[in-house]
Amino acid sequence: MEILGGPLYGVAGAGESHGPAITTIVFGCPPGLRISRQGIQRYLDRRRPGSSKHGTPRREQDRLILLSGLYQADTDRLTAGAPIRVGDADQALTVPSYDEGYCSGEPVAALVLSSSKRPQDYEQFAGPEGEVRPGHTDLVKHHQSRGYADPRGGGRSSYRSTISDVIAGSIARIFLREHFRTVILSSICQVGPLKSSLTLADRLEDMQGPGSRSCSPDALENLEDSLEGSEIHTLDPTFARSAAEAIRETRRKGDSLGASIEVAAVNPPPLVGEPLYQSLKLRLMGSLGGLHAVQSCEIGAGSAAVERRGSENNDPIRRSGYQGNRHGGLLGGVTTGSPLICRVGFKPTSSILRPQQSVRKNLKEIEFKLKMGRHDPCVGIRAGITLESRLAIELMNAVLMHQSRRLDLKAHQLF
Amino acid sequence: MEILGGPLYGVAGAGESHGPAITTIVFGCPPGLRISRQGIQRYLDRRRPGSSKHGTPRREQDRLILLSGLYQADTDRLTAGAPIRVGDADQALTVPSYDEGYCSGEPVAALVLSSSKRPQDYEQFAGPEGEVRPGHTDLVKHHQSRGYADPRGGGRSSYRSTISDVIAGSIARIFLREHFRTVILSSICQVGPLKSSLTLADRLEDMQGPGSRSCSPDALENLEDSLEGSEIHTLDPTFARSAAEAIRETRRKGDSLGASIEVAAVNPPPLVGEPLYQSLKLRLMGSLGGLHAVQSCEIGAGSAAVERRGSENNDPIRRSGYQGNRHGGLLGGVTTGSPLICRVGFKPTSSILRPQQSVRKNLKEIEFKLKMGRHDPCVGIRAGITLESRLAIELMNAVLMHQSRRLDLKAHQLF
Amino acid sequence: MEILGGPLYGVAGAGESHGPAITTIVFGCPPGLRISRQGIQRYLDRRRPGSSKHGTPRREQDRLILLSGLYQADTDRLTAGAPIRVGDADQALTVPSYDEGYCSGEPVAALVLSSSKRPQDYEQFAGPEGEVRPGHTDLVKHHQSRGYADPRGGGRSSYRSTISDVIAGSIARIFLREHFRTVILSSICQVGPLKSSLTLADRLEDMQGPGSRSCSPDALENLEDSLEGSEIHTLDPTFARSAAEAIRETRRKGDSLGASIEVAAVNPPPLVGEPLYQSLKLRLMGSLGGLHAVQSCEIGAGSAAVERRGSENNDPIRRSGYQGNRHGGLLGGVTTGSPLICRVGFKPTSSILRPQQSVRKNLKEIEFKLKMGRHDPCVGIRAGITLESRLAIELMNAVLMHQSRRLDLKAHQLF
Amino acid sequence: MEILGGPLYGVAGAGESHGPAITTIVFGCPPGLRISRQGIQRYLDRRRPGSSKHGTPRREQDRLILLSGLYQADTDRLTAGAPIRVGDADQALTVPSYDEGYCSGEPVAALVLSSSKRPQDYEQFAGPEGEVRPGHTDLVKHHQSRGYADPRGGGRSSYRSTISDVIAGSIARIFLREHFRTVILSSICQVGPLKSSLTLADRLEDMQGPGSRSCSPDALENLEDSLEGSEIHTLDPTFARSAAEAIRETRRKGDSLGASIEVAAVNPPPLVGEPLYQSLKLRLMGSLGGLHAVQSCEIGAGSAAVERRGSENNDPIRRSGYQGNRHGGLLGGVTTGSPLICRVGFKPTSSILRPQQSVRKNLKEIEFKLKMGRHDPCVGIRAGITLESRLAIELMNAVLMHQSRRLDLKAHQLF
Fold first, then answer.
1. Which of B121, B124, B133 is closest to B356 using CA atoms?
2. H-helix segments, C253-300
3. Which of A10, B239, C136, C265 is the most exposed place for a label (fewest CB within 10 A)?
4. Averaged over A354-361, what is the pLDDT?
């Protein structure tokens, strides 16, 4: 079943690139957590095509509609969301959607309609004679489904499915921030061969006070603002400029570029994470490493740890905490309180305008040339928010798992 | 997580009684299965309040909107469903919904808006001073959620949540009927103290040919028609009349009645069902027995088997099949091909107009009197379709589980 | 996967009737819970064939071996369990097993070897010419597995698999008793046509003080002792005598009898249980109703509720609690604090000595006569402990689920 | 719950480093698959400490005992495994274990006793004054469990837990090899700063015939033999020698080294793998990337893809298959039939003999010096078999998931 996270906090998603909508159900939102449409929309806006000038030219409004799981006594404020109407004018039904309220503990459902669809862009790919885009799922999904897959825009395999990830991630990070001051960030650190000279891991190390291992809320807020203000969501303004130029240049050539992103949870709740087979490390490597177009995932020192000796790689421990973060915030899959840090590598966007060798779905060989269609020349540019969201979902689930083992008898008082 | 069925075929649901909508995601619809909005709407109409003259006076349109998981090359027919509009006129977005297509194998999402809400009906129950309806979840849900539960109409505990069950059940029964000629039926066999003189179990026994254990499609269709035409969805017209009269009488008195329903899958696929801890018997007893207001669930001979001797209760076996169906179509949790038969007992509707002893949510004692609100005097009247749906979901999942153990190498041909 | 309960507290089981052992892994035992081999063995002894003079003559030692998930600093006491030796004398490896310790939070594994096996008893059933016992899984399991099922003693479908249920249930009830004074009991209330004149539901009602809804520990201990001392684990000594006589008489005739059992959790933790699709009612109906040979399961008033009017069936509520327990301790699948009460109906044992019409596995018709083999003339006699165990497992899981929603920041203190 | 893989093929494990045994239950073994103790033991022997001269000096016999889920008519051959005895001589029970048989479809349980334990090695770490080994889970597991974790040898976090992975992986690879000629291999490609000059990815590319994308069974067998014969399980003999020397040198210095391993499934079944949230890519990245001591996981071109342009990175497609394997055998999480290839990076072993800054569990600062204990100077040396096993488990589960969507009506024939 199409569930990300869980068993306590997780999200179910549905919807294809060119279908009517992406539908999302979030499970496990703690009763009493206050959320608003705007608080989630803010993150959805970062995911949206068109939100970056270097992303796809596709423009989507991606307006969030909340449909369940919230309540507050002031039902006027509760139901101040945009109205939904179903049916034609003469026999339509219109209902208001939710704007703001407290989680009731029941599943939170959300809808995002898909506005900008040009079916003619995808006629090239339809049916058994449809052409196969190299690097995409067209061929395998067609044969796996015996021809019934939706060929429009990659169907469900479209990056548009990550709307569900971001909605669930947003609720999780609101919870984590409120209770633990956890802040989740990402920074692009490589675009094609260009590398950032600053890393998030180093910056966070610098931000910690000498006697303390946590980062101040103010400093984190500044860091967030500076990342959001950056041209390509990176710490390093020099790198941002050269990467942006490389992307523009690559787009002109009809080609594409890979990218690498650091993602971090700062001030994560310590001591959460299951052991072994469901460890938080396993879950994060899967969730981040399993995202569209990802080819590599690292935690802490990552592949650089291979070259080190144990005496260099073990982080010393003092009363104030771990003196270094080569472990990346996880030991044995349990959080240490140091920032949780991953680095994720994306392949260059598969859709390019240059001619390529390919086949039709029936395996007839062709010289493939993409006729039309919108796409990102560098998928990494937009992916940070999704990585942040997936990290938040897994961290949230781990917190609830850990809480389940703490017995609070007051939770059972009725009469 | 709010999932019914699974892990291969299951449904996630969200939405409260008085919220904007019930949202549903169905997982595991086999690629290539043709479904239409109308094919599902037909079953939803049976569930709808107001569909029976003996049910609640609440009127809901319960119009099904399909949002994902379908495709066909003729996208005009695919997208011939009702349009959905989000936002106010000046900045609205309108998209068409799906009407008919083949399952792509991806999750099928569906939306049903909630039209008929009168919030003033439920002011009596809001807040910590809110009154507690005996027999309802008001008190426990309030304290379990520390006051954050949605009090309107029972919130998520409302019977309205079963829209999701019916949508998923409908797709399952379309599949089961197409491939196995499986037909799923129910018949009310008791209302209060009044009992039907005909049982579905006996009728199905009679319908089987002497040398065969399966029922003819024509005979089953007639049986379905006769049940759907019945005043209260029962085989027995005499019983239907007296039960209908008893319900009217009880409604006049402001009281309510229990009911008992037989539900059956005729011509079920043989040999499906997991062993022991996930056995189809365990799953069915849970899914049917766990429905709102249910207090008992029986399979086959049910509690009557207790009084029998083994020599009376074992069904003899001949080359043509089991000669009797005291086992109810399941042995060791595996289907034998005999009709799968359960009987489910519902308590009388908890909402009554008579005064009762109760408390406020803060435990202050009160003399409770229901002020307003719509309700069924006998919840059993509408429950048959939900039981049928839950049976279909579990049976479908069991078929897929069984198939997973049959290796078909042709399923792996690509190049 | 063969998992009972979960996702937080659950048990995985493996092992066939005539295989070397039943293997059990229990997940979710809370760190710090003290358990001992003897504390679990006590319940296993109640399950064991031969523990009742009315059960099967098969004698099994059913000695519990604990292999993981426990620890205490005094490793001598920790490892004071029976030694296990693997291999022949000359190259054997012997290790001690665990006797007593604190749960570490890691999975608890347990082994119970199977001693008393007479393979010649089951030659009648082996291979494609093997005979099919009416009422058993022989035929369906053979064809479902394409001939690879273990035919000896019913293979995995044997009641012997319930050893895993009892081990997991024992740990759960130790936890529930320690923290909530919850006591889990069962009483046989019907054997064939004979009914007990006392019910557990009534007795528990009587035991509650006038101003209180909970039962005193002393009174409960007396009740437990009296049930364990009873000839057939029932409250009613007169019924016990006549039922025992009926069982003896039935055994002489080579026939078998059904039975019905009440099972209850007294002083259950209030406010636990998920809503709807994973509700505690759904889980209990499935887990209890899905046990071997069960044909019916009822909660609270059960099928008797069908005949009642709402004004009779709703339990009044006062400041001290629910004034009656027709709801059986659950409303909307959430515990109210009133005793959780179910009644479960078992069919008569399928194995009888009388001749019956049957087939071979290849469907050749035969006159079937059981040649040898040990069996219970009334499976209900031994089933109470398994029902109690399954109830404990589900209740324990529900407690942990509820706790997961209570945030205790102290659980995250490290540095 | 401690489950790896699933929902159709998965494994539950239990057992700590210094406990009596590792207990394993494997779910979803297809009925009819023939397995033998020896066929699994062969892989367990590769995992065993002491199996490599460069691994830990700890010597374990790791003798596999099979306890359930197998059957064959020749019960003498079935039960020809080593005998297990429980209890002291005077009241012991001895049963034979399984040696060889066909999977019945029921769970396969296995036991591996732990022989070589020297508790005095770990006194240094016990109790609240116990010392914390940098890089290990000692501190977080102690506080997460509120002091109840088993401190001996890392408790459940020990690498010894991977016995369960290897047992389940072995059964999976027997199935995959039998039906698809799938062969699963690994090769160490880096030890500390030393890199192999040959990669498994390149070698497999070379082994494919010009018109075909599959590798011949003979060539694969030779490759397997050469890997198993290698001093450190690598393709490159020159690298093997220098890496072995580096490991010896590092051991002398009391320090440790990281390593990197390529793992591949050659001739994998095409078209398997779920979409998106449970995609085979997500599952593999999690399962391989979540193993003890892993800090990075890559698929196909891995992090090298970041630097490429799309026109370089997309693999061309011809009628015969993908002309290159930068995609690593997965597109959109679905297998293409090209070898599935991952590369996994391990940190240097955390246990070193050099002094380090650390704390006691109560956070008192200490200069930490490991007193005794056995360990690998380079954990990567033994990890290949576990990576292969985890890959096999996920691939097997994906095959069963794919099969579940293919309807074979013959699977339902009974009467």
1. B133
2. 280-289
3. C136
4. 96
Report the number of secondary-structure helices (H) and strands (E) in chain B. 10, 21
Which of the 8 DSSP states describes residue B290?
Answer: T
β-bridge mates for residue D118, sequence order? none
Q: Do A31 and B156 touch (CB under 8 A)?
A: no
ipTM field: 0.96
Three-point CA angle B81, B82, B87, nearest 5°: 135
Which of B103, B276, B406 is the mutation pick for testing D, counting most D CBs within 10 A? B406
| Domain residue ranges in chain C | 4-400
Whether this prediction's pTM lies above 0.90 is answered by yes
CA distance D178 to chain C (A): 18
| Cα D202–chain centre separation | 23
The closest of D54, D384, D58 to D244, measured between CA atoms, is D54
Classified as helix, coil or strand, A23 is strand
Neighbors of chain B with 3 or more C-beta pairs under 8 Å: A, C, D
Give D4-400's CATH code, choosing from 3.40.50.10190, 3.40.50.300, 3.40.50.1820, 3.60.150.10: 3.60.150.10
Tell me how far apart the alpha carbons of residues C9 and C174 are, in angstroms, rounded to a whole number. Answer: 14
CB contacts of B352 in chain C (<8 Å) are 310-311, 314
Q: Say how far apart CA C42 and CA A312 lie, in whole Å.
A: 53
In B17-161, the DSSP E strands lie at 21-27, 34-36, 65-66, 70-71, 83-86, 93-96, 100-103, 108-113
Packing angle of the helix pair A37-47, A162-180 (nearest 10 deg): 130
Closest CB to A23: pick one of B16, B68, B147.
B68
Among the listed residues B181, B13, B178, the one whose alpha carbon sits nearest the alpha carbon of residue B108: B13
- DSSP category for residue A379: T
Ramachandran assignment for C119, one of left (phi > 0), alpha (psi -120 to 50 degrees), beta (any other): alpha
A289: left (phi over 0), alpha (psi -120 to 50) or beta: alpha
C-beta of residue C339 within 8 angstroms of C-beta of residue C246 = no
Residues 6 or more apart whose CB falls under 8 angstroms from that of C338 comprise C213, C315, C321, C322, C325, C327, C328, C329
Amino acid, single-letter form, for residue B83: P
Q: Identify which of C16, C315, C11, C6 has the alpha carbon closest to the alpha carbon of residue C151.
A: C16
Tokens 């830990």 identify what position? D56
User: Is there a contact between A377 and A349 (Cβ–Cβ < 8 Å)?
Assistant: yes
D412 φ/ψ angles, rounded to the nearest 5 degrees: -120, 20
Lowest mean pLDDT across A8-12, C301-305, D207-211: D207-211
pLDDT tens-digit readout, D132-179: 999 999 999 999 999 999 999 899 999 999 999 999 999 999 999 999
Q: How many CB atoms lie within 10 A of CB B225?
A: 10
Averaged pLDDT for residues A64-71: 98
Question: Which residue type occupies B361?
Answer: K
φ, ψ for residue B75, nearest 5 deg: -75, -15
Contacts of residue C233, Cβ cutoff 8 Å, sequence gap at least 6: C52, C186, C187, C188, C227, C381, C384
Return d(Cα D21, Cα D49) in angstroms, integer. Answer: 15
Task: Work out the pLDDT band at D49, boundaries 50, 70, 90.
Answer: confident
Pick from D89, D113, D99: nearest CA to C19:
D99
Instruction: Please provide the DSSP assignment of A85-122 as one string.
Output: EES-GGG-EEEE-B-EEEE-SSPEEEEEE-----GGGG
Q: What is the pLDDT of residues D169-225, one digit of tens each?
A: 999 999 999 999 999 999 999 999 999 999 999 999 999 876 677 788 899 999 999
Confidence class for position D52, pLDDT limits 50, 70, 90: low
Tell me if C278 and B336 make a contact (CB, 8 A cut-off): no
A47, A162 in Cβ contact below 8 A?
Answer: yes
